[in-house]
Write a structure and sequence with these properties.
heterodimer; A: mainly beta; seven-stranded mixed β-sheet; four-stranded antiparallel β-sheet; 11 strands; B: mainly beta; 48% strand; globular
């Protein structure tokens, strides 16, 4: 059974960088796979942030205006998200997920990140 | 971006009654490989989403057969043949044909 778990600070100050790590178990990230970050502002819908292939290619939602980076560490079976210059609008539950066939089949439990001074 | 429009935004259903949720896309979701990448997810309060249906009508393992998906092009439907108490929550459609992949705003299902 594939499991994903997000970790990282729950509070980030405006203009600083949000950093999250997703630890994957039950599946080797060194095999052909795609890994994603998706977010959900409180009381709102879901927004796909980015995905990355285990081989290194990636794709980002243009709405993030180049503020997001994603990286994989297959030796640790982890991948990460960094979002720079955050504002209150970036307050959300951040989910890591496995993308498979242009959809998500496994989700993490989600990590609430609040942007506030 | 492809806009996914769900309707209704909320509905209240009696236990055992059937119901249908609609999802419409602003562009056709038929991809060049012949597949239509439309998925449905269910999210209970405080939980992460769970996929129910992928590629319009394929039910995920473990998903009860009271859930079914249909549609083509820009018009899609999730049908619950007989609502059970555990079905409450939000339902989201999602398209994976055009990047960035996008979700509908959700339909909230309440039990009467």
């Amino acid at each position: 059974q594939v499991q994903l778990q997000e970790s990282g600070p729950g509070l980030v100050k405006p203009s600083e960088t949000l950093s999250l790590i997703c630890t994957v178990s039950g599946y080797s990230m060194s095999t052909d796979s795609y890994w994603s970050w998706i977010r959900q502002p409180p009381g709102k819908g879901l927004e796909w942030i980015a995905y990355m292939h285990y081989g290194g290619s990636s794709n980002f939602n243009p709405s993030l205006k180049s503020r997001a980076t994603i990286s994989l560490d297959t030796s640790k079976n982890q991948f990460s998200l960094k979002l720079t210059s955050v504002t209150a609008a970036d307050t959300a539950v951040y989910y890591c997920a496995r993308e498979w066939g242009r959809t998500v089949d496994y989700w993490g439990q989600g990590a609430l990140v609040t942007v506030s001074s | 971006d492809v806009v996914m429009t769900q309707s209704p935004l909320s509905l209240s259903v009696s236990l055992g009654q059937p119901t249908s949720l609609s999802c419409r896309s602003s562009q056709s979701l038929l991809y060049s490989d012949g597949n239509t990448y439309l998925s449905w997810f269910h999210q209970r309060p405080g939980q992460s989403p769970r996929r129910l249906i992928y590629r319009v009508s394929n039910r995920d393992s473990g998903v009860p057969d009271r859930f079914s998906g249909s549609g083509s092009g820009t018009d899609f439907t999730l049908t619950i043949s007989g609502v059970e108490a555990e079905d409450l929550g939000f339902y989201y459609c999602m398209q994976g044909t055009h990047w960035p992949w996008t979700f509908g705003q959700g339909t909230k299902v309440e039990i009467k």
